[in-house]
Design brief:
11% strand, mainly alpha, 3-stranded antiparallel beta sheet, 9 helices, disordered N terminus, 235 residues
């Protein structure tokens, strides 16, 4: 029994990106049913569309130098086929395989969350770099605006920051600590928006443009970059 369990663990996981499949030979072993009978059952379920084209993959294997056919079923395909397999160990086989699928799914989901968390932290850290760059460019812009006649240049700190956020978010008036509320994708979008704003500020100052025109250019560039605003942030 332990040997069968070992083979099961090796055969259930196949492919990448969290995809789980099971080999029809493995089903036959656990259910103690001839593989040819399992193939006939799966063939019938496919023919009558109980198992869809997306839920199985024909495959082949070698035994004593001869090629034989088999199937790889994904989770949905296996769960549909399982009640029809039969065999001496039908109930026991169903329990063992379902338990194995659930265990592997939990493990893969946990790994996916860990990868997402790592990616999230990387985006957040790189976002800090983009924010610092924008803050530096805003300071230069404020100095530039003051030197060319602006009496309220200090307001551009909040005005430019708000413009960047509002370009892709619907932000409630009392929303606070916005960056901490964003998803990894939204943080990535924010980072790009901040880099765009930084570039517009730097180019505008270099070309001696009017500070009001530079601010309007930020809005125009962000409108081109962002398709639409989709997220409402609460307090």
């Amino acid at each position: 029994m332990k040997e069968s369990s070992r083979k099961l663990t090796q055969l259930v996981i196949h492919g990448t990106n969290g995809k789980i499949t099971i080999d029809s030979r493995n089903i036959a072993d656990v259910f103690e049913r001839p593989h040819k009978n399992v193939l006939q059952t799966i063939d019938s379920l496919i023919e009558e569309s109980t198992i869809s084209r997306l839920e199985f993959k024909p495959s082949k294997y070698l035994k004593r130098g001869k090629e034989y056919r088999c199937f790889e079923l994904n989770e949905a395909g296996f769960l549909k086929a399982m009640p029809f397999i039969g065999g001496k160990k039908s109930k026991e086989g169903q329990k063992r395989l379902v338990d194995e699928f659930l265990s592997l799914r939990k493990r893969l989901d946990r790994q996916a969350k860990e990868r997402e968390s790592i990616a999230f932290q990387r985006v957040r850290l790189s976002g800090k770099d983009a924010r610092k760059l924008l803050a530096d460019e805003i300071q230069k812009f404020v100095d530039y605006a003051q030197s060319t006649g602006s009496k309220n240049a200090g307001r551009y700190y909040s005005n430019i920051t708000r413009t960047v956020y509002n370009s892709f978010l619907i932000v409630e008036p009392k929303a606070d600590k916005i960056r901490e509320l964003l998803t990894a994708i939204q943080l990535s979008t924010l980072q790009t928006a901040e880099l765009i704003a930084s570039n517009v500020l730097a180019q505008g100052i270099e070309n001696n443009l009017n500070y009001k025109d530079i601010f309007q250019q930020i809005k125009k560039e962000l409108d081109i970059f962002v398709v639409g605003r989709t997220k409402i942030l609460g307090v």
